[in-house]
Write a structure and sequence with these properties.
The chain is of the alpha/beta class. It has 2 domains: about 30-115, Leucine Dehydrogenase, chain A, domain 1 (Rossmann fold, 3-Layer(aba) Sandwich); about 140-260, Rossmann fold (3-Layer(aba) Sandwich). It is about 45% helix and about 15% strand. It has helices at about 5-25, 45-60, 75-85, 105-110, 125-130, 140-150, 170-180, 195-200, 245-250, 260-285, and strands spanning about 5, 35-40, 60-70, 90-95, 160-165, 185, 205, 225, 230-235, 235-240, 255. The strands form 3 sheets. It has a 6-stranded parallel β-sheet, sandwiched between helices. The protein has a 3-stranded parallel β-sheet with strand order 3-2-4, with helices on both faces. Helix 1 (about 5-25) runs parallel beside helix 10 (about 260-285), helix 2 (about 45-60) crosses helix 10 and helix 6 (about 140-150) crosses helix 10. The longest helix has 25 residues, at about 260-285. It binds NADPH dihydro-nicotinamide-adenine-dinucleotide phosphate (NDP). NADPH dihydro-nicotinamide-adenine-dinucleotide phosphate binds next to helix 10.
Length: about 290
Amino acid sequence: MAILLKGKEVSTRIKDELKNEVAALKEKGIHPGLAVILVGEDPASQVYVRNKKLACEYVGINSFEYLLPESTTQEELIELIEKLNKDDTVSGILCQLPVPKHIDEEAVINAIAPNKDVDAFHPVNVGKIMTGNFDFVPCTPAGVMELIDESGIDVKGKECVVVGRSNIVGKPMAMLLLHRHGTVTICHSRTADLAEKTKNADILVAAVGIPEFIKGDMIKPGAVVIDVGINRIAPKKLVGDVEFEAAEKVAAAITPVPGGVGPMTIAMLMKNTLKAAEINHTKQEQ
Ligand code: NDP
């Protein structure tokens, strides 16, 4: 049976460490603050925003919430972001995605000042992730790296397969594994013979968005399996992108859903906000 990589426990440990760091920063007169913007009333987004606010409260970060109506225009949203860019009490800014269809997501991402872009979606930060000299790491891939470390496996020289190539998960995930000297394969919807690729993986990351898509027989015995997927298949039932019951019999370590990657994402957001507070404080002093 595989070891369970319990993101919930690891994230609590990280948040406890961050709580101490926030207290130390406050003694130096640095007060981290996170502005979270939500446009519209998507129920999943509302849950994510609420959890982010709770995490801020837990670690002692000031949280500023902007719950805007669905009818908000792109101009109004960008005006708010520009105001927050200039606000010294705001260290980090996050606009919960997806935004309503009448708003251009890319324009919103580009409007956030790179030094406050705690999601690390701005092209400046994406570029920095490519070169390996980055301030902020996208929260989900960063959380995955923490869980891989938790498994005790050294990424160096390992076959790493990432299924999914989105800008927010798959691509940055692959880069982080590459920076840690993994041999990385990125798979997507046009990949020929996916199972042949996944069966080769010492570290398999599934970020597909299809419930239980990765079957047990697609996993190499002894692999570390990281399931990023969050799929609601019934009002109170969440499953990942990996068929958990079959996979845990084959893998050496696996993340559960829920309680795996999800809580890690929020812990990493808190970490990025602290980093932003430090960076921006140094800038103000210069
Ligand atoms: P996207 O829909 O943006 O990307 C999905 C990726 O999966 C695409 O690259 C797509 O390929 C690939 N894909 C789709 N079908 C197949 C297939 N049949 N075979 C191989 N690859 C396929 O999703 P995200 O990256 O945003 O999210 C992925 C999952 O992770 C979702 O379940 C989401 O809810 C979850 N998630 C969880 C987070 C957390 O905190 N735990 C945070 C963010 C996301 P192609 O590019 O060719 O279309």
